[in-house]
Amino acid sequence: MSYIKLSKLSLDYIVLSNHSRSFKSTIINNGIRGKIISNEHLYVRALNSITCDFNSGDRVGIVGLNGSGKSTLLKVLSGIYSPSEGILQIKGSIAPMLDISLGIDESATGIENIFLRGYYLGLDKKTINSKIEDIIEFSELGTFIDMPLSTYSSGMRLRLMFSIATSFNFNILIMDEMILTGDKNFIVKSKQRLDEYLDKSDILFLASHSDAIIKEYCNKAIWLESGEVKFIGAVDSCLEKYQDSLL
Predict the structure, then answer these.
(1) Global pTM?
(2) Are strands 228-233 and 85-91 parallel, antiparallel or unpaired?
(3) Rounded to whole angstroms, how far apart are CA atoms 244 and 247?
(4) At a CB cut-off of 8 Å and minimum separation 6, what does 13 contact?
């Protein structure tokens, strides 16, 4: 059984020196909502003492304003950032689907990028080879699969990346709502594939600004504000409390 456990987890990072002339403008322009915890340097506490447990069957939506810590939390769960304090325990293979273009090469062909992305996800050559035909068929790229990625339109690129991302099974999925975008025809086609893909996973984390998406895919939700958990619980209750806070 897969699980993710966070115990008093915090994440700090340095933005810049307090003596920099751009100190204030950096805070204002980037909408930094974390807490400044040093007078000498700008340390932002992006996540503050988060404690929660999730197990197989949990579909967790993450809501909050821009700068509230949603993407940061996803990156910590994905292993991109390491916690500054606290404990993170994970059992199960993880598929980070925050930027499905990570691990690709513009000069490489579609086929070569399938392998590059697969290796980025920690897969071996045999596993990747077993999904080549499925990826090509679903992406509808045809002979373009042997062309460099630099020759692809944005729609072709998205179809390839989405097809790769949803071809390999993992226990825990870490997603943001960007993967649910694209041209209308592809969204219709990809929705069924994504639903089937999610059904095979144990745990889902999905950050979104859309209440409709959270309600459709999640059975629990976390509301973050300035890197702190304001509420964890049922989706409807969490969204109601979050929306009330915006009034």
Answers:
(1) 0.81
(2) unpaired
(3) 5
(4) 43, 44, 46, 81, 84
Rounded to whole angstroms, the Cα distance separating 205 from 192 reads 19
pLDDT tens digits, residue range 113-170? Answer: 999 999 988 899 999 999 999 999 999 999 999 999 999 998 888 889 888 888 998 9
- What is d(CA 247, CA 243) in angstroms, rounded to the nearest whole number? 7
The answer to whether the CB of 7 falls within 8 A of the CB of 51 is yes
Residue 26 in tokens: 């950096």
Reported as a single tens digit per residue, the pLDDT across 233-243 is 999 999 999 99
Give per-residue pLDDT as tens, 120-131: 888 999 999 999
CB contact at 8 A, 100 and 177: no
Measure the CA–CA gap between 60 and 76, rounded to whole angstroms.
15
Tokens of 65: 């304003």
Main-chain phi, psi angles of 237, to 5 degrees: -65, -40
